Amino acid sequence: MNSPRRPWLRIENLVCEIKEKFDSIEDGEISPSSYDTAWVARVPAIDDSHKPQFPQTLKWITDNMLFDGSWGEESIFLASDRILNTLACVISLTIWNTSKTYVYIYIYTYCLDFIKRHAEQMMEEIQANGTSKEFEMVFPPMLNEAKTLGLDVDATLFKEISKRRDVNMKL
């Protein structure tokens, strides 16, 4: 017989397992991913405290913003990758209302400016090289979420990505 508390026990066990895995990782074993970290940062606390379950991820995000206002692999510049990572990080920071301090206001302004400055370059890369179906599936909903959260992301340049996604969805 399933008790109403049983799903919470499962969640608590999974959270403990994730924490143990993070604690067991030594430097150099994996390369941190700003995109993945941003998604983990969105996980709400299991105690329903309206806080993140993993607050250290928000600190990691703020500590690892690159000099140009983006997140991603510093040694390789691919506009689509940087914009996707940056958008994911800014959304995570916004979800937890971290924008109330001067530091975060600066981050938002700088990061959203990065996205706008590199939007055309990203679209040129896509025109020249195409995109992955995974990117086409993930990026438009993230743009919609950013707009819903009140982030000033001009999505007009990105309409082509949505069109490609729609075509691929019909295949």
TrEMBL record:
MF annotations from Gene Ontology: magnesium ion binding; terpene synthase activity
Record's keyword annotation contains Magnesium: yes
UniProt keyword list: Magnesium
Cofactor(s), names only, from the UniProt record: Mg(2+)
InterPro entries noted in UniProt: Terpene_synth_N_sf (IPR036965), Terpene_synthase-like (IPR050148), Terpenoid_cyclase/PrenylTrfase (IPR008930)
GO biological process: diterpenoid biosynthetic process
This protein's name: Uncharacterized protein
